[in-house]
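Structure first, sequence second, as always.
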């Protein structure tokens, strides 16, 4: 039992040494496995590239989200300032020195009857 484990261990370490040493490249079996290894290499490169692209998009999305939050806060602040500045009492105080006064009478409607002109020549 121990002998079989020892043989497997030696066989596994021998394979690792063949890969690290490069001797597997000169064997006849390498030609058969070359296209598979190239395929696996291309797939790994595609996965790594896809990961980098995805991380870049996530960074861009985080920046855009932060910018959106900043703009929302700014929008609320500006809207609040406009609401405060457009109050009637604030407008009356700001226009005191200009001579304009607040209307104390309600608005009146004027009716004007305009008769259409007859005999208009072009």
């Amino acid at each position: 039992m121990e002998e079989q484990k020892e043989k497997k261990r030696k066989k596994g370490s021998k394979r690792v040494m063949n890969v690290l040493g490069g001797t597997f490249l000169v064997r006849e079996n390498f030609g058969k496995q070359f296209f598979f290894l190239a395929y696996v290499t291309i797939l790994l490169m595609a996965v790594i590239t896809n990961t980098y692209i995805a991380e870049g998009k996530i960074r861009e999305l985080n920046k855009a989200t932060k910018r959106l939050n900043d703009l929302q806060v700014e929008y609320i602040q500006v809207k609040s300032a406009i609401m405060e500045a457009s109050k009637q009492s604030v407008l009356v105080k700001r226009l005191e020195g200009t001579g304009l006064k607040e209307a104390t009478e309600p608005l009146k409607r004027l009716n004007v009857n305009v008769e259409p002109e007859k005999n208009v020549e072009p």
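Margin note: The first helix runs from residue 2 to 21.
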